[in-house]
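INFO  loader      accepted 1 record
INFO  loader      residues=213
INFO  predictor   begin
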Amino acid sequence: MTSGHHPSQDTSINQFTYLALGDSYTIGESVPENERFPNQTARLLAADGIALAPPRIIAKTGWTTDELEAAIAEANVTDTFNIVTLLIGVNNQYRGRSVSEYKTEFTRLLKQAIHFAADHSDRVVVLSIPDWGAVPFAEGRDRQQIAADIDAFNAVNKSVSRKFKVHYLDITADTRKAPQDPGLVASDGLHYSPEGMAVWAGKLAGIMRTILQ
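INFO  predictor   done
INFO  writer      dumping tokens
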């Protein structure tokens, strides 16, 4: 699985730039590249006449907060972007990492995201962690405990987001509709389908319109 790096963005004055930081949910595990939620969001904005260069994505399936930090350092990104999104933490929960460790590492990542947005916190959007306990992969596991853990991690990223005055998009509730709507889940039974990601993209595009217009 590649980290989804794209060529340097077109910095022409009529195109906005977008950097998406994350894990499997951002890279779009088990969905076509053009159906990843950052790409879907870009298409929705284009339909409104808001031109976005192809999103640059630094994300990989399985990454925890510290692994995303390391990948960002390795990528040596020198550009700034009009919009930056950050969605990270599910693998911290899955691997049994502590919430306190997550808070420390997520805070560093959010500061980095703000820096990538030319130090404009109002150009950064944090997305909440999806609840993987709601998908078929979690069959036989303690779904209630997974949900409680995810809520604890999301309480942290929401609190830190408020502290740094960035936008916050809660997509967790949408992911918990998977048992009633199997079409939201990708073919691997773990990640989310293009239809599932379309829900996130629609909400994210609404926030990004406000920022860019």
